[in-house]
Amino acid sequence: MASATLKQLGADFISLFFPVTCAACNGELVRGEEAICTSCLSFLPRTSDENDPRENPVARVFWGRVPLQCAASAFLFSKGGSVQELIHNLKYNGRKDAGIAAGKFFGNDLKKLTPFNSVDAVVPVPLHSEKFRKRGYNQAACFGQGIAHALGVPLLGRAVLRMTATETQTRKSRTERWSNVEDVFRANPEINVSGKHILLVDDVITTGATIEACASALLACEGTSVSVVSLASARE
């Protein structure tokens, strides 16, 4: 008990000089808050997609393209908004803790709902090895780690392999985005996902081209079914 008290006192002392900030609003966190402040968790624009996992706008992105069990996003992405700040800090400022915290938050919602509560494993959309070396981590895997923790299932970080590096998708059209990721992904033969319900996770869904290509690689494995979630979606 004394050791825990001393540890907390030490953390409080450090925070006086190096305050831990919210990854969404950059305000200072208080004791008990984890990466994202309570206010942001309450007021970040939610999608409610998880309450309608087969008919919501994210699910409709993939209709006629790839057969998914369900799909959802936690937050709505808008330029200049707090969700963009959260994702920027996660991807470029080393805020892995923000991805994990957001994953736990959203995962606690998902585990109460069918068919998300039948998921066997979480798989993040992979980065190419060169980008992974530069960044040091995969932001989708951070989000996936939090979701896997909430659902009580394993995170299979290498179940899908990215075979070639691709250009950024940001300024590409829908057709260009698909061409950019076609034949990029392959299921890892060393990790058995056959017969499993896989939850594929990414940071942001826009046209869905990356998710479509990645899900197709998983669905090529016998008996595998796939659902999709993302930290945010940009509704076109």
Largest sheet: 4 strands, parallel
Residue fraction in strands:
5-15%
Uncertain runs with pLDDT below 50, 5 residues or more? Answer: 8-18
> What percent of residues adopt helix (DSSP H or I)?
25-40%
Describe the global form.
Answer: globular
The termini sit apart by: 53 Å
Mean pLDDT, to the nearest integer, reads 88
Class by alpha and beta content: alpha/beta
As a whole number of angstroms, the C-alpha radius of gyration is: 18 Å
In N-to-C order, the SSE pattern is: HHHEHHEHHEHEEHE
Enumerate the strands of the largest sheet in spatial order, edge to edge or round the barrel: 1-6-5-2
- What's the total helix number? 9
Count the beta strands.
6
Topology:
Elements: H1 2-17, H2 38-43, H3 57-61, E1 71-76, H4 82-92, H5 96-110, E2 121-124, H6 129-135, H7 139-151, E3 160-162, H8 174-181, E4 185-187, E5 197-205, H9 209-219, E6 225-233
Helix pairs in contact: 4-5, 5-7
Keywords:
two-stranded antiparallel sheet; 39% helix; alpha/beta; single chain; 236 residues; four-stranded parallel β-sheet
Report on the architecture of this protein.
The chain is of the alpha/beta class and 236 residues long. 39% of the residues lie in helices and 14% in strands. It has nine helices and six strands. The chain has helices at 2-17, 38-43, 57-61, 82-92, 96-110, 129-135, 139-151, 174-181, 209-219, and strands at residues 71-76, 121-124, 160-162, 185-187, 197-205, 225-233. The strands form two sheets. It has a four-stranded parallel sheet with strand order 1-6-5-2, with helices on both faces. Helix 4 crosses helix 5 (96-110) and helix 5 (96-110) runs parallel beside helix 7 (139-151). It is globular, with a radius of gyration of 18 Å. Mean pLDDT is 88; it is low at 8-18.
